[in-house]
Amino acid sequence: MTFGERLRELRNHKGLTQEQLADRVGVSFTYVSKLETGALPPPREKTIVALATALDGELDELFALAGKIPHELLRKVDAQTMRMLRSLDDEQKAHKRGSKMRRRPIGDSPASGPDGSGHEEVSGYASETFQALVENSLDGIVILGPKLEVVYQNQATEGILGYKMGDLVGEDVLGLIHPDDMRKTAHRLSAVAQTPGDCDRAHLRVKHKDGTWHAIDVWANNLLDTPAVNGIIICFRDISGSLGKEGARAEQTATLLTAKEYHLTDTELSILALLTKGHGNARIAEQLVISPSTVRFHITNILRKLEAANRTEAAALAVRRHLVS
What we know:
Blueprint: H1 3-14, H2 18-25, H3 29-37, H4 45-55, H5 59-66, H6 71-74, H7 79-96, H8 119-135, E1 140-144, E2 150-153, H9 156-161, H10 179-194, E3 199-207, E4 213-223, E5 231-238, H11 244-261, H12 266-276, H13 281-288, H14 292-306, H15 311-320
Antiparallel strand pairs: 1-2, 1-5, 3-4, 4-5
Helix pairs in contact: 1-3, 2-3, 12-14, 12-15, 13-14
């Protein structure tokens, strides 16, 4: 039984419609529908817990069907245990393929090859080189497992999206993607996952840990059949308008999404941008061709909507939340 099938079974037993369940969990009706049909992979831990609570389901069962490990349990698993579990998983996969060669987890010291050729040593060196490159990359890198769950994230992820090492492990990355981009992304990522060696690239809007939307340039590369990786590598960077017209459009869209969450009007957004440059009311009025009293009125609304005490605090928040370029 799949996660979606069990979810539908529990919902019907509870006598709830998809709309009612979605309302209780705080997600969209479409999201529940796609979970049940299997069009989307199982959700992240927080949503699984909410579903189990709403449906009086067994939490352990839902986690098992989702193929995820609760964070509380994951925190108790040390690095040595993780290497052992990955090693066992590799052995099982190798056995299924009829292979006599044991596949190692990333970074393990290699032994000489079974034919004395030293191929295993080369592979081990490549594994260590790969790991060093990933850990020291300036781009954000996450590795997804076969079910599109995060099994690894590098240090650069924190600098780009604010998530510390380990925050995303076990999570469903689709939950971080803006709803308008999620359907297309899920389809394309699923297509990449079906074909070893396949690649794809896209511009997405992804939620930062502080709640703001960032325009991200993403590359996906299916290396599930590569022993040193055994996953789908996702490389990403905050484009911040540096990738030409397409990047600028994506950044502008992300900025407008964040502004919309604060209910800022276009005029208020323009005034806020001038505030961050240190302009006074008179100069703002001159540039926007409005009266100083109108500027004061809009600034009062801006401070209220941003919950800022003064202009300086509003300007700092605007820069931090990417409300202005």
